[in-house]
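1st attempt posting a full record on here, be nice pls
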Amino acid sequence: MSRSDVMLDILKKTCLHPVCRKTPPALKYRRLFLSELIKRHESTGFEPLDELYDALAEVMGAEEETVCYKTYFLPSGQLISLEENVAMVSDGTTGLVTWEAALYLAEWAMENTHVFSGRAVLELGSGSGLTGVAVCYACKPKTYVFTDCHQSVLHRLRQNIQNNGLNQGGGGTGVSVRVEELDWENARDEELQRIGAETVIAADVVYDPEIVGCLVRLLAKLVKNPKKVPEVYISSTIRNPGTYTCFKRELEKAGLKAVAAVTHPVTQVFPYDRVSSIEIIRVHAAA
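the predicted structure (as tokens):
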């Protein structure tokens, strides 16, 4: 296979692939990718490839968008495509994009399926839905409840769940899936008991000192439930050590204990900055 054939093959398996055409990544990402592909081809001294320049011209002529898609392949070959906002913060929330701790938690879940398999799972602050969709496909929980409090996030969640074949009820996975609004500050005991979670997870929810208090109070309600005590796992990217220390201090004040998860993900499934300081803790009632 010649160098030109290799470049054409790469183009067909990326920007011209049916998945990319149906659920395209951000325009900026595609521009950078194609520009780099052309640069590398030109450095070989081969004749220019019209197909590469046509693809770049199409992207350069496209209008800027506020939303894009991110697509991932699980080790099983299952494809996950999520619609996300291009901007990290929009509509007054950070929940319309996927953050590193969610990718980290999803990798950890796939290596610790016993924490989820056959259980009722509750996710706090589900965001775009990456962790939940991955858990539903790879870990086969009995039920999975995606939650958030922002209407734009809930709307996006429902879209992404439907687009990935889960729907309300779980699609072909056999998992009963629901999307619910859950306000941490005003969550009622009856509401939590109805969900009946056996495993509770959350990713990148410890980022603002102002919401630490209501998060800890909610965790205390869950962990101190006399009828059913769930396992609780929180995945956090430690961007601000002060905020993270504040979170752990508030857990102690509430009679809760945080223990770092024993293992870290071994298999690299998703692309994210591996240098980032990310930690999964298990929260339980202090002895």
